[in-house]
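My main concern about presentation is that the manuscript never shows what a single data entry looks like. The format is easy to grasp once an entry is in front of the reader. For illustration, here is how one protein appears when written out as sequence plus structure tokens:
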Amino acid sequence: MTQNPPQGQAPKKSWLSVNALRRLFLWSLLLKGLDGVMELVGGIVLACVSRAAMINIVYAMTRGELSEDPHDFVATHLTTMASNLSGDSKNFAAYYLIGHGVLKLFLVICLLRNYRWAYPVGIFIMLGFIGYEGFRLSARPSILLGLLTAFDVAVVLIIYLEYRQVKSGQERPNLWGKMAPT
């Protein structure tokens, strides 16, 4: 239900059309869902693979690159990280990734189904992730984590804008084209 502007006034211009916002919302959720699946799979693999096997896998993956360039940034950091990973750190990382992945997938599914309660819950949880990522960035700066945090901030903004559309009473089809329960 869109409201017409009062007589004599031009319609309010939006910097982002409703359809473009919807597409952006769906794409950002699909990317977050893919990220959640990768975290879940990575966490399960990390939980199931021994520390020694993980070190061997990393060395096997980086051996060729390090033979060409012994100072390769990514390869040297991966081998150092694998060598320095303690059993407790490995377990924490595995459970963190599994929990993070499951939570992301749950939120993505609920948002794709247009459950109205999932919008503020998703924003709240994403802000928690952003807070933790900010803490990690302040303790140990990382370009990759900075980019992921910026993406999370953008996703929160997109969820908020989509939620405003939902709250305005406009019927929004879910990913499957059905109107969502509230």
Observations:
- The helical segments are 18-48, 51-68, 73-84, 87-112, 118-139, 143-167.
- Residues 23-40+87-167 form one domain.
- The chain has a mean pLDDT of 83.
- The radius of gyration is 21 Å.
